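Inverse folding, one chain.
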């Protein structure tokens, strides 16, 4: 892997496709949670994502502890926390924004575990983005509950931790990694659903499920999970973490627009300001070299 390499045009298109798929995924999650409690929704997702594909795709060639770590952090913890955060008061658009803090968690963890030293621009971008989190915290109310905020930020940390296992697990195909990761997450989430949701809620939810929820499950499984994570795993294997993950900051654009269009979610001023700060980190991550060159040229011209 050449970590200094920029994304090719083909891979840029794949990255943007993933952004759109994951941005719309928050709408599907919101719809599904109308009929299903979060842990049961996750259990169904993991089951359909793993079977029958686990019988067709070979297990990744890595130590079992790495595969288990990948499944627990990237799927069981991330989505258990995210679904719960939306269920307990974070809107789809806002959750799509908050989850992107995983970008900076990923860069920090990559430095700790893989010595991918972040540049000054990336550090500055992180600080600016966390100012946006401060705006969200200051506006916690009935539309953005504190518990929902904390759960969503923990989901972002879980995703970032899962990215570290993605780089350590060797799989013949990115889809195989996704399928086996869901298989690992399934028993953990099934037990959580049984203990927290309870048998009566599980049976009642299954009996009263709507076609809209069936469609939401299908989107979450076959588009967000198989297609999205398949592409994502491939990109993380091909490029440095700091090159790939900043693009996920574009997901809130899709999340906010789709939430406003499909759900009528209000785009209040504080949400827009939080978006400006959080997504401002993208400028320092993606355009850092150009900004430095521009500043250097200006310095030289001013010195003449």
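Residues assigned per position:
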């Amino acid at each position: 892997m050449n970590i200094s390499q920029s994304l090719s045009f083909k891979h840029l298109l794949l990255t943007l496709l993933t952004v759109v798929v994951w941005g719309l995924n928050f709408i599907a999650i919101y719809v599904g949670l109308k009929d299903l409690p979060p842990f049961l929704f996750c259990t169904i997702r993991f089951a359909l994502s793993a079977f029958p594909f686990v019988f067709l795709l070979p297990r990744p060639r890595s130590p079992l502890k790495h595969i288990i770590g990948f499944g627990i952090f990237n799927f069981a913890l991330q989505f258990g926390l995210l679904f719960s955060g939306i269920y307990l008061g974070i809107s789809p658009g806002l959750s799509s924004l908050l989850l992107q803090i995983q970008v900076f968690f990923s860069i920090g963890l990559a430095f700790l575990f893989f010595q991918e030293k972040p540049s000054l621009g990336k550090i500055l971008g992180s600080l600016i983005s966390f100012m946006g989190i401060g705006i969200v915290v200051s506006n916690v109310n009935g539309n953005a509950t504190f518990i929902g905020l904390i759960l969503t930020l923990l989901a972002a940390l879980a995703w970032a931790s899962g990215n570290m296992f993605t780089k350590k697990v060797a799989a013949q195909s990115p889809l195989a990694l996704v399928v086996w990761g869901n298989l690992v997450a399934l028993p953990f989430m099934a037990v959580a659903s049984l203990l927290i949701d309870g048998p009566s809620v599980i049976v009642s939810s299954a009996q009263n499920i709507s076609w809209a929820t069936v469609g939401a499950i299908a989107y979450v499984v076959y588009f967000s999970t198989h297609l999205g994570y398949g592409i994502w795993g491939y990109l993380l294997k091909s490029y440095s973490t700091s090159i790939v993950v900043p693009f996920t900051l574009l997901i809130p654009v899709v999340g906010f627009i789709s939430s406003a269009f499909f759900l009528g979610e209000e785009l209040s001023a504080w949400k827009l300001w939080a978006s400006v700060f959080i997504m401002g980190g993208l400028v320092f991550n993606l355009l850092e070299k150009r900004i430095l060159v521009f500043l250097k040229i200006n310095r030289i011209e001013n010195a003449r």
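DSSP finds 14 helices and no strands in the chain. Residues 9-303 form one domain.
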